[in-house]
Design goal:
The complex is a heterodimer of chains A (103) and B (158).
Chain A lengths: L5 E6 L4 E6 L22 E8 L2 E8 L8 E6 L7 E8 L4 E7 L2
Antiparallel strand pairs in A: 1-2, 2-5, 3-4, 3-6, 6-7
Chain B lengths: L1 H9 L6 H6 L5 H5 L5 H4 L4 H8 L5 E2 L5 E4 L3 E4 L3 E7 L6 E6 L6 E7 L3 E9 L5 E8 L5 E12 L5
Parallel strand pairs in B: 1-9, 3-9
Antiparallel strand pairs in B: 2-4, 4-7, 5-6, 5-8, 8-9
Chain lengths: 103, 158
């Protein structure tokens, strides 16, 4: 929980892909533990990506997004030195923000 | 215009926004991000979720307008790759719905320039279902494309 977000950049001929791994349980609140007790819901509700400090992606998620989900987004071009920041906030108020610089 | 609208909406709180920003207590992204659409995400029927999302009757997309890449059969409903892209002019958002999930709306994504209207995500699917990708184009209209996914083993609690 609250492990760093992994951000990878893949360059293609006519676009760059931003791959994001969010370590998070994405618990729906509908499943039970070994003793049959309901696990409380805990899932990311908002996911944002910023490029050089400006909003690029503004996403809202439900508990039906997979555990430790992988996302990919695309931009036309990323130049060396471009800063990418990824942040999430879950329904319990927990949050995480990580950054990377394109090489 | 959308970020400005959000800023204004968020700005209706009693907290002195400029002071918080100046003090570095809040990241601008937190203020710009729209609040979670509770009604859309907790709707139990797709029609209801579409309505709460703001897309009442999206028009069927043309054959190449919206592309959905997803497996025909998913062995594990706990993690199903779904990729959506669109060639609709000026597309600003993509939302993914799974009709048979307890709560059909899975995710909604807004794209701001220079982002391209493309998303790949991983969803939990409770059972075999029809997926809908809803795209809002630059003229504000909603368009929809469908895809069936067979699920061998359902993702728990999707």
């Amino acid at each position: 929980m609250n492990d760093p977000i992994k951000i990878r950049i893949q360059r293609h001929a006519d676009f760059s892909e931003i791959r994001i791994l969010l370590p998070h349980p994405m618990e729906t609140g509908l499943s039970k533990d070994e003793q049959g007790r309901s696990l409380p819901p805990q899932f990311i509700q908002t996911l944002t990506v910023e490029l050089n400090g400006k909003p690029l992606i503004d996403a809202q998620l439900n508990a039906s997004v997979a555990r430790n989900p992988l996302f990919a987004f695309r931009v036309r071009e990323l130049k060396p030195g471009d800063r990418l920041a990824v942040a999430w906030v879950d329904n319990t108020g927990a949050r995480r923000r990580d950054e990377t610089v394109a090489s | 215009m959308i970020p400005l609208r959000r800023l204004l909406l968020k700005g209706s709180t009693t907290l002195p926004l400029a002071a918080l920003l100046a003090g570095g207590l809040l990241q601008p992204s937190r203020l710009l991000a729209a609040s979670w659409n509770h009604n859309a995400f907790t709707a139990r029927q797709t029609d209801e979720a579409l309505k709460a999302y703001g897309a009442v009757q999206p028009s069927p997309a043309g054959p190449r307008d919206i592309t959905i890449h997803a497996p025909e059969t998913a062995e594990n409903g706990g993690k199903v790759d779904i990729e959506v892209s669109t060639t609709l002019p000026g597309a600003v958002s993509i939302a993914v719905f799974a009709d048979k999930n307890a709560y059909p709306l899975c995710a909604s994504i807004d794209f701001l320039p220079p982002a391209l209207p493309f998303v790949k995500l991983q969803a939990k699917l409770l059972e075999s279902t029809r997926i809908r990708a809803v795209v809002r184009s630059g003229d504000g209209k909603f368009h929809v494309a469908f895809r069936e996914i067979k699920v061998t083993q359902g993702g728990c609690g999707a």
